[in-house]
Amino acid sequence: MTESLRPSDDSLYPSGQMEGNAVLPEGDPGTGFLETRGGPETTEQAGLDLKVRGQWAYARMRFFRHRLAVAGLIGIVIIFGAGILAGVVAPYGYFQIDLTHILAGPSSTHLFGTDGLGRDEFSRVIWGIRTSMEVGVFVAVVSTFIGLVIGAVAGYYGGWMDNLLMRITDLVLTLPLLVILLTAATLLGQGNQWRVSIILVLFFWTGIARVVRGVFLSLREKEYVEAAKASGAGDARLMFRHMLPNTLGPVVVNATLAVGFAILIESALSFLGFGIKPPTPSLGGLVADAQQYSQQWWLTVFPGLTIVLIVLCVNFVGDGLRDALDPQQRRMRA
């Protein structure tokens, strides 16, 4: 009975499609105006609150619902912020010596105690955070760029190009990482964070290359890629304009996780004596220096705990990004 009272002739609504008592205009559906029987009015006046979320807005909403990811992000901002502002946050210089407080325990004057030369351990940890941050970010950015290019070329062209690049990638992956890094550090030089970062980049690009290559293999057969190719788009435009945006999710996740892994490997190399050398501050170097003071627990605990916190926070953020950028993820983990 109700349907018999509703007009069914589309000619009664020449301005566009019928939606209840409102007619949506055909010209610009995003203007926020509706045309009703009484004349045009806005969607708010009609009682319709239309909100359109983009892909990145939806991913951002999902990320901030991930409690561990938000906690990790806050931790990273605080820790890396202290490293960036080391000259302001650190109460003492990295080499400043206080002979009246040699091997002093944690106190209000020296929060993390002092080392064998009376240097403030808290200040040294803050300066070490800056070095570790530089290594992690540099390795993540450069290795991601290299892996992105190699993976895109291999996945797009396929054939002998794919076989060649993937065999090189597999060869690098089969090498024992720590042994090769120690050998490379001996042969290529060590001492500052940039040399160590370049050595790490040589081995960090393989994971992201395999991820990007797999995504490109699935995307090159999609209809929108075929349509762009038929319209005359070149290979470079197809790869980096049409296909690359669809790989940003796994790329961002892997780049984030690479930061923590690079910091962990750099600390291990510095601890073994093959990484960053004094006078450049390093968290791994601080742990290595503390081995000669077995009774002074604070010299080992605070730098080591800082490394653990950085890696945990980065992994929490990476886990949150994985859940937020995965369109098939329906249930958020806490």
Structure commentary:
This protein has helices spanning 2-5, 55-64, 67-84, 86-89, 121-157, 159-174, 177-188, 193-219, 223-230, 235-243, 248-272, 283-289, 298-325, and strands at residues 16-19, 22-25, 33-36, 39-42. It has 334 residues and is mainly α. The radius of gyration is 28 Å and the shape is elongated. The protein contains 13 helices and 4 strands. The longest helix has 37 residues, at 121-157. A 4-stranded antiparallel beta sheet has the order 1-2-3-4, with no helix packed on it. 33% of the residues are buried. Helix 5 runs antiparallel to helix 6 (159-174) and helix 5 (121-157) packs parallel to helix 8. Helix content is 61%, strand content 5%. The protein has 2 domains: 2-42, no CATH class; 55-325, MetI-like (MetI-like fold, Orthogonal Bundle), CATH 1.10.3720. It starts with a helix and ends in a 9-residue tail after the last helix.
How is the topology of this model organized?
Blueprint: H1 2-5, E1 16-19, E2 22-25, E3 33-36, E4 39-42, H2 55-64, H3 67-84, H4 86-89, H5 121-157, H6 159-174, H7 177-188, H8 193-219, H9 223-230, H10 235-243, H11 248-272, H12 283-289, H13 298-325
Antiparallel strand pairs: 1-2, 2-3, 3-4
Helix pairs in contact: 2-13, 3-5, 3-13, 5-6, 5-8, 5-11, 5-13, 6-8, 7-8, 8-11, 9-10, 11-12, 11-13, 12-13
Topology-level CATH name of the largest domain: MetI-like fold
Beginning-to-end CA distance, first to last residue: 50 Å
Report the helical percentage: 55-70%
- Classification by helices and strands: mainly alpha
Proportion of residues in β-strands: under 5%
- Secondary-structure element pattern, one letter each: HEEEEHHHHHHHHHHHH
Largest sheet: 4 strands, antiparallel
From the alpha carbons, calculate the radius of gyration and give it in angstroms: 28 Å
Instruction: Enumerate the spans where pLDDT stays under 50 for 5 or more consecutive residues.
Output: 1-34
Number of strands: 4
Main-sheet strand order equals: 1-2-3-4
How would the global form be characterised? elongated
Mean pLDDT: 80
CATH superfamily membership of the largest domain: MetI-like
Just give the CATH class of the largest domain: Mainly Alpha
Overall tally of structural domains: 2
How many individual helices? 13
CATH architecture of the largest domain: Orthogonal Bundle
